[in-house]
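Q: Predict the bound structure with NDP.
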Amino acid sequence: ETVFVSGASGFIALHTVKVLIEEGYKVVGSVRSTEKGENIKKLLKSDDFSYEIVPDIGKPGAFDEALQKHTEVTAFLHIASPFHFKITDPIKDLVEPAVEGTKNALKAIHKYGANVKRVVVTSSYAAIMDIEKVSSPEVVSTEETWNPITLEDASKDPIRGYLASKTFAEKAAWDFVKAEKPNFALSTVNPVYVFGPQAFAEEVKSELNTSSEIINAITKLKENDEIPSSSGFFIDVRDVAKAHLKAFSSEETIGQRLLMSDRFFVAQDILDIYHKNFPKEAAKSPKGTPGSGEKASEGAAKIDNSKTRKLLGFEFISLEKSVVDSISQIINAQNNK
Ligand code: NDP
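A: Predicted complex:
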């Protein structure tokens, strides 16, 4: 079986590709450059991985050639989407590539992917949460909840731009399936903040992908720095990768949104784990108010993903393990420089 993975060089995608290869699948990845494709080949050391260049998922027909060439593909995981806030125009830089990228993938599959039976779109908790209600503890989101954000909200700032990009991209995917009645079934994976080590130690750079940088930034703090205000829900990247496999290989996940969340966190929780497990490296970091994270979670909106947990049937990796594995990889990379 051959699985197509868009944005194969990304944090979540590379983990997913790694697990697919371990499980015996052949993988065709899309990347933006030859350099990125060759790098993945070098890391995976497997002939079961090949790549196609798709420089911009947002350009019309972006995936046409890749799929015309690979008629053997039976499942398509659309993971590529811009996830960073270094942008000038939220609509042009985030919403358009996310939405057009998703439509381009689905159109190409519908047209050329005669053997594609399953499609998974990597959506996000961003498509579920309501940014105006994150501090309303009585609000509970589930797999059925939709972010009410509008295009007008999206243009206000990069955060809202990103939330809208994921909301509208996922909506476009479900709308496509409804309107076109294609040959394939759709499922989505909707993760909260994804932490955990990079799939390969070589991928640890001084600045990491947006979600991993939350942990990286905490290891960079100096004694008198303020504790970052970052907070949200957490899931480990290895669980997100496993969910992508389940999403396309099980009958039960057809038409489902898998809401991937383990628990709520604040930066203080990450800092506490850092001090506890890496006392030497953390010696010069601020302490904050150890143990105060639990209280902070009481004021936050909630997630009930019992449906997803039941569908997946595996235990999620804990915040402590995820943070410890991430930080040890960062420390090793620094020591090996
Ligand atoms: P990364 O930034 O590591 O990966 C994003 C990937 O998408 C990269 O390979 C990037 O390529 C590619 N990409 C972005 N824009 C384009 C474009 N216009 N054309 C072609 N390729 C593009 O982030 P993650 O691995 O974290 O994110 C992967 C997916 O998971 C995204 O859909 C994201 O929205 C979603 N997600 C992530 C969460 C997280 O906390 N990490 C939480 C919830 C959802 P390149 O690097 O070459 O630019």
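A: The first helix runs from residue 11 to 22.
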